[in-house]
Amino acid sequence: MKRLLLTLLLAASCWGPLLLAQEYSVLGEIGLMSSYTENPAGGAENSLESLLDIEAEHRIDYEKLSFIARHEVEVNRQEELEHILHEAYLDYRPGEKLRLGAGKQRIAWGRGLAFFPTDALHPSHTDEDVEGFSGLSLLYTPGLNLQLSGALDFTAPLEASGDGGSANEDFYREIKYALYLSYFFGNADLALSAVYRPEKVLRPGVGISYELAGFVLNAEAAAEFYNQLSYPDGGGYTPAEELKPYPLIAAGLSRNFIPAGNPDLSYYLAAEYLFAGSGYDKDEAAVYYADLKAGLAPLPESYQLGRHYLFASGSLELFQSFAAEISGLMNLQDQSAQYNAGFTLLTIPDVDLKAEGTLLTGGSATEFGLAQGSEGDYSISLGARIYF
């Protein structure tokens, strides 16, 4: 019922003000993908399924105000509809240097490739298109080399009130406050960030990206100070009385190559490493991770806690002809990995023909090995996307 009301509200907010709008535009895409999944022996049967999804971005523009909404509808093989609201917010521009946002929005902070420790709102994501937050945002640009961003994230208190939790007493204690500063000087881009949620989150961060001889080097680091650990206690786990900070450190390198004799051809190579601490010492960590694999210890709030990752990718594109990409995300802690490969035919205007494959490797107690139970050993997909 809530999704239906939200959809109707979105439709009304999109079409109602059109008569007064200076400009209305909609962009979108329709995708149809068929996938074959090979599941582990002894598990679920191998499956063949198709998925239809339609994604649209609406914009209603006035002189100083815009409304942006991006949503998606998926239809699975059971013919079940799922509506996903990615963004729906107002963008207000009172002056050339200031922008204000209100609603559900996505702000991509950080200078990383796959890991973004300085992203004050989404530090654990490895996908730039993660779910947005509901709240207020500010972007202030006093000069060409300096930008200051801020956000108030109301997602947690709104969800708590919607689930029957306290709507008044704990509302302000559940708000997440975030700041992000970006300063450009020469070939370098320096970033400072901080996020705070009373008694739950306190994470400052710093990052830099630098262009050198065609290569882009990036490094980011953050430290979580409100890290409440759980320790073994009489066969169970109880929260620790003291807080032990843990670090998030990422470093990467990327390069885009365009041959001088063929400007339509481009190559892209990238690699990035992430170290995520835990706050435990060596002996404590050994006990905790052994219990975690056995299902005895509680899961950490950040799934990357205490893990080390390596991300690598490479791509090749010939303008308006084809694009090919291969990538891998490896958990160096437990030696499991996820590999992806894709090929896209670009010869048809406004239509992409795609072939994709995913392979998961690792033992039964590893991160990606555990994912095999729900996602299969490997999958192969064929499909098309139509843009409008």
Describe this structure in words.
The chain is mainly beta and 388 residues long. The protein contains four helices and 20 strands. It has helices at residues 2-15, 155-162, 282-293, 367-375, and strands at residues 23-38, 47-61, 65-75, 81-95, 98-105, 133-143, 146-153, 176-185, 188-197, 201-212, 215-224, 228-233, 236-243, 246-257, 265-276, 308-318, 322-331, 336-345, 351-361, 378-387. It has an 18-stranded antiparallel barrel. Strands 12-13 form a two-stranded antiparallel ribbon. It starts with a helix and ends with a strand.
Question: Which properties best describe this structure?
Answer:
globular, two-stranded antiparallel ribbon, disordered N terminus, 18-stranded antiparallel barrel, mainly beta, 4 helices
